[in-house]
Fold Glycerophosphodiester phosphodiesterase.
Amino acid sequence: MPTTWPYPRVLAHRGGGALAPENTLAALETGARHGHTMVEFDVKLSADDVAYLLHDDTVNRTSDGTGESAEFTFAELSELDAGSWFAPEFAGVRMPSFARAAARCRELGLLANVEIKPNPGTDAATGRAVALAAADLWSGAAVPPLLSSFSATALAAAAEAVPDQPRGMLYERIPADWKTETAALGCVSLHADHSELDEALVATIRAAGLRILAYTVNDPARARELASWGVDLVCTDRIDTIGPGFLG
Ligand code: G3P
Ligand code: MG
């Protein structure tokens, strides 16, 4: 793991933010086309244990299918249209495997924040599988992917499988024991809903030796404020107005 923080100041949420169907290769390509150098995407395991990109626990919102995502094999998921829901020009876009998404990131020169997004009851299995796959998919890369999860169980399994890999704990609400928990999981960073952060808390977290990622920051003035407090990285849907160089 590099000893210095190798990531930029801004990353594109779900690949292409609000400008492409989330968690698809088209999204990664949209992020890159807007000049972004880092993307975030969500990874789950299919019923036959293939790691692939999807946010929700159902396929309903972001594809033309219906049902619990955990019940689909990857071949079945691959039959679904994951682009038409967003806009007609994305018709036929598929949910990519993690392997294909990683390869596309590397081709496009995109760094990655891989969010481990387990379906209920699969936290440890998903954490382990994603960590092992990430180590393999970014083998030899100058900058490793930054793994993150809202699931401490998933991150603990990831840490056990691949100890020497950067990890960040995701919090929708920052708990009182954030310092103990992030230390126990060997995290390099704390990833928080930006509304949870204020100047004093940012200073406290940084003083504990953690980097900070704030999501999902869509107001340029708020992005500048967070950066001025010492937030390292902002995750945005507004990949156009909060561009790759927006925070310098
Ligand atoms: O990792 C930041 C962000 O992606 C976390 O929330 O729900 O968009 O995955 P969500
Ligand atoms: Mg996410």
